[in-house]
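Reviewer 2 asked us to include a model.

Predict the structure of this chain.
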Amino acid sequence: MPLTHHNVAVTGIGLVTPAGLGTEASWATIRDGVPTASHDPALAGLGCDLSCRVPGFDATALLGRRTAWRLDRFTHLALVAAREAVADAGLDPGTWDGARVAVVLGNSLGGTATTEEQYRTYYGGAPDEVSPLTVPKSMSNMVAGYVAMDLGARGPSLVTATACASGSTAIGTARQLLVLGQCDIAVVGGTESALTPATVTALHHMGALTRRTREPDRASRPFDADRDGFVPAEGAGVLVLEREADAAARGAAPYAFVRGFGASSDAHHATAPDPEGAGIERAVRAALADAGLAPGDIAHVNAHGTSTPLNDATEATALGRVFGHGAAVTSVKGVTGHTLAAAGAVEAAVTALTLHHGVIPPTAGTVSVDPAIDLDIVLEAPRKSAPQAAVSTSLGFGGHNAALVLTTA
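Predicted model (structure tokens):
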């Protein structure tokens, strides 16, 4: 059943991304279209030695030595982003009713750094030195558990795993919990940190990563005519969601409203999207129907836009069928690289900021749009605009598709 007419307010945002540590820094870099890919010493000698890491992230300084030691980096990122989002919303975990606060986070690969480190210890001949924290540090679900513990959130707590659509799926799931009355506040988003040699090598062998490693600034180039793969990245994006009436009652000033959500499955291939784009088109149309809006009401699309040949062609085909040339399209992955399970949440946050500030970020790294792609791709510089409604799309391995409709506050 559609959840139309149930506006859910975005009252807080926390971003820990390659574009910056914190929402203000991340937004400024994304808004200005400054690429962040660089040669990564940890990946030296691999087929792709580029990555987009969060700059200046010191987990010990930000979280304390004891907390940092007990958690994997993907959880570090989520905790810092969640704390920022809650503070930004003007909420105090010390005074709220924790039983009415949900935590819904998207993650795909879990604690790969911990897993690889402990495997090396075990197979290196030191099984007695394998850490007893290995399992709780590496399990995907534990990021929601640790954030809930940190914030004293005792409502529903779960992790969504729909690959690179996980963050968007988390937001759609949390919205449903709010509308159904299962919680009053939802701390929701996505996180990923899988920049390990084995994981990056596997992605390279799949053909998913760029081979343009000599030009970091143009390595991630969504929708470009000569795109050849994505740049792996890490990051976390967290939003605080509340029902519109609850936010208004406490005097909160929302960035935007989440008006609609749609999801679908390609049921086509493990890693390749349906080349006709039927799955993502269904998700977008379902989100529009949920929001009670028509395609002509949408002035902006924050596209998944990974910079891979198949994804960008598929997504562009679907977006063209739905919106024609009527919506300004951008992909932030030209700046951030591909943060995998965090991407949908980071991009939903950027979409909310786009609506809030009236500025559409450009697609960094892209110089010549593929002539087969007939969309209004925002290039070179931020575009001043005042869209009232926008769509954020996500596609993931396994054929997962998700779309969110956000409107101005």
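The CA atoms of residues 103 and 157 lie 5 Å apart. The chain is about 35% helix and 20% strand. We have added this to the supplementary material.
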